[in-house]
Amino acid sequence: MTIDLRRHNTVLAGDDRYFVFLDDGRARLVPDHCPHRGGPLSLGRRTADGRRLACPWHGTRVGVAALCRTALPMVRTGDTAIAVLPGPPAGETGETGQAPVPVTVIHRHILANLPPEAGEGTTDATA
Amino acid sequence: MAIDTDIVRPGPADDLGRHVAAFTNDNLFTGVPQLLHPPNPYRRMLVPDAVAEVDFTRPLSPAEATGHRALVAHRLLGTFYEADTVLLPEQGLGALRGDFDRFYGDGLRRLREASLSDLERFAFALLDDEVDVTGAWSVEDLAAYFEHAAAEADAGEAESLTAIAAARRPEVAADTYLVQLALDGLTEASAMSKNLGGAFGPEQSALFKVFIDEFGYGVHDAKHTTIFRKMLRSRGLQTHVHAYWNFYLAGPLATNNYYYFVSRDHASFFRYIGAVTYAERVFAPSFVNMIRTYRGVFGDDVDLHYCEEHAHIDAHHGRITRDEILLALAERHGAGVIPELVRGIAEARLLGGWFEQDTAAQIRWSDDLDAHRLPGGTQTPAGTHAPAEGTRRVRVTAGSPFGTRSHDRAVVVTAEDGAAELVTAPTGPSARLARGDAVLVPAGRLYGIRPAGPDCTYSVRLAGPGTTAVTPSAS
To answer: Do B130 and A77 touch (CB under 8 A)?
Structure first.
C-alpha cells in the first residue's frame, strides 16, 4: 500500500493500527500497540534520554530500538512510502483462505515523534 | 559554452574540482564545431566552462536530480565509466590511435581513478536521502513489493511517449526520445557485463542467460546494439558512439550511469540485481507502448525490430530475473540482503521517473519554443526581468566548438550582436534568434547556441520571477 507521508501518518488495517515513527532521521511504520496492554504508543512521549517511549496508558517504557525492530517492511522514496502489510493484498485471498482486511490511511497527532519531555521521570518498568 | 568572454570562473575548491577541471580541459573533451560528434568514441564535449561553474564540494540534492550540476556530473561519470569499457571505431582505429592512447592512457586514467568515487558520491549521495528501506523483510514481502512496483509501472503512462504524441513536431520529439535510448542502446549491457565474473552459483548462470540474449548469442547481426542501430538508421540518424552526445539529457545520463555505479562496486551487487530485475520487468510493456507511439508517428517508415525484440525477450528476462535471480538470491542469502534488493528496485523506479520527466520536459519545451520568446527582445520591462548584473556575454564563431548545457534556474538568452541559432533537439530545424531576440530557457532545459552567420554574441541572464513569454503555450 502507498502512503503520502506529507498527508498521512497512520494506517488502519482491519483491527490493527500502525503509525509512522520518526527516529534517527528515518521513517518507520510500527505497530501502534504497547506490548503491555495494547495502549496507543503513538500517543506516548519519549523519555528524557530519547531511548524509550512511555505508553500513555500505564507508563510502560518501550525501547525505541525494540520498537524499530517491529517495523513493517517499507520503502520510502521522497515523500511517498510503500509498505507491505501482513495478510493477502486487497482483492486477493491468502493461501490459508483469509480475506484481505480493509485498509485506510489517515493523519493523526503523533506525540511519539515530538522531542522528549523535559524532567520526565524514568522509574517505571521497561517493556 | 564556447568562447566565453566575461565569465569569472571560481577556482576549484577541492580535490574533486581540481581533478575534474584537469580532466575536462583535456583536448579530447573541448568539442568540435559540429552539432553531432564525429565517429570517434574518445572525443566528447564536456563543456569546460559549464564544468567550471560547479561547486563540487556540495553534492547534488534531490531537487537537482536533472539540473545543470547533474548534467555536468553525469557527463563526466558517463565518460569515466565508458573509459572502463572497450570502445573502437567501426571504421578502424587508423588516425584515431592517438586519441585511443590518450583516452585510455595513464594521465586521464589517474585523474579518473583519483576522482571517480568522489564524483559518484557527488552524483548519487542524494539516493541515500531519497530512498530508505525500513522494517523486517521476508522473501514474500520482497515479492509483494516487487509486484506492487511492477503493477504501478504497468498502470502508468510513459510521460515521454505522451509528450511525443502531443507534440506539434512529433517526428522531432520521437527522435529526441530515441537519442536518449542511444546512450545505452549503442553500448548495451556493458554495465551488466561487470556482474558476470566471480562465483555466485545458479543465479550467476541465470544472469548470463539474460546477458547472452543481449549479445545475440554471439551472432553480431542479432546483438541488441546492432538492431538498435538499424532503428536509428531507419530514421536517418547517425549510428556511431556517441554521435548525439550533445543531446543526452541529465535524467537519461543519470539512469545509465546508475547501472554502472552499482555494478562497479560489488558491495552494491544486490542493489544492482534489484534494479535490473525491475528494469527487465517494465521494459517489455514499455516497448509495446513505444511501438504503438512510433507507428503512430512514422507509420512503416521506421524499423522497430529492436522494440519488438525487447517486447518479446524482456517478458522472459522479467521472469528470469525475478524468479531465478532476485527471489533466488533472497532465498539463498537470507533476510540480510533483502533490503538491498528492495532498495535497487526502488532506485530503478525513481531513476526511471527522472528519465521520463526530463525527456518529456525537453520535448515539450523544444516543441513550443516560440511560446518562450520574450516580448521586446533585449528590452527589460520594469519588474519583469532580473537586474542586469550577473549577465554573461559569450561570443561564438562558426569555428567555435559546439556544446550544450542547462542552468539550475531559468535564464533569458538574448542575441546581442549578429544572429544566432538556438539548438534544443538533435533533429529538426533550430530556432533563429535575430539580433535583439530573447528566449526564456526554463531551469534544466538543454540548449546550445551557434552563430547563424560567421559569428554572434549572446547574453545569458537570470530570469526574474515575472518573466513571461510572448504568447501563452498552447500545449
So the answer is: yes
pTM (two decimals)? 0.90
- Residues constituting chain A: 127
Strands (DSSP E) contained in B170-312 are: none
Q: Which residues of A touch B66 (CB under 8 A)?
A: none
Can you read off the three cell numbers belonging to residue A124? 517505571
Strand ranges in chain A using DSSP code E only, listed in sequence order: 2-4, 10-13, 16-23, 26-31, 45-46, 52-54, 61-63, 74-77, 80-83, 103-106
Find out whether A100 and A89 touch, Cβ atoms under 8 Å: yes
**Angle, vertex CA B326, rays to CA B338 and CA B352, nearest 5:** 90
Instruction: Please give the Cα distance from B272 to B351 (Å, whole number).
Output: 13
Instruction: Give the tens place of pLDDT for each residue, B180-239.
Output: 999 999 998 899 999 999 999 999 999 999 999 888 888 999 999 999 999 999 999 999
DSSP 8-state code for residue B266 = G
The DSSP secondary-structure symbol of B428 reads S
| Residues of chain B with C-beta less than 8 angstroms from the C-beta of A94 | none
Whole-Å CA distances, A11 to A36, A108, B199? 21, 10, 43
Quote the CA–CA distance of A12 and A102 in Å, as a whole number.
8
CA distance A13 to B283: 33
Q: Give B336-361 pLDDT, tens digit per residue.
A: 999 999 999 999 999 999 999 999 99
pLDDT of B386 > 60? The answer is: no
- The Cα–Cα gap between B147 and B278 comes to 10
Spatial separation of the C-alpha atoms in residues B404 and B426, rounded to whole Å: 11
Chain A residues closer than 8 Å to B133 by CB:
73-76
**ipTM associated with this complex:** 0.81
Taken as a whole, chain B contains a residue count of 475
Report CA-CA distances (Å) from B255 to B284, B350, B396.
18, 9, 32
CA dihedral angle for residue B340, residue B343, residue B348, residue B350, rounded to 10 degrees: -160
Helix (H) or strand (E) holding B455: strand B455-462
Q: Could you give the strand order of the β-sheet that contains A10-13, starting from the edge strand earlier in sequence?
A: A26-31, A16-23, A10-13, A103-106
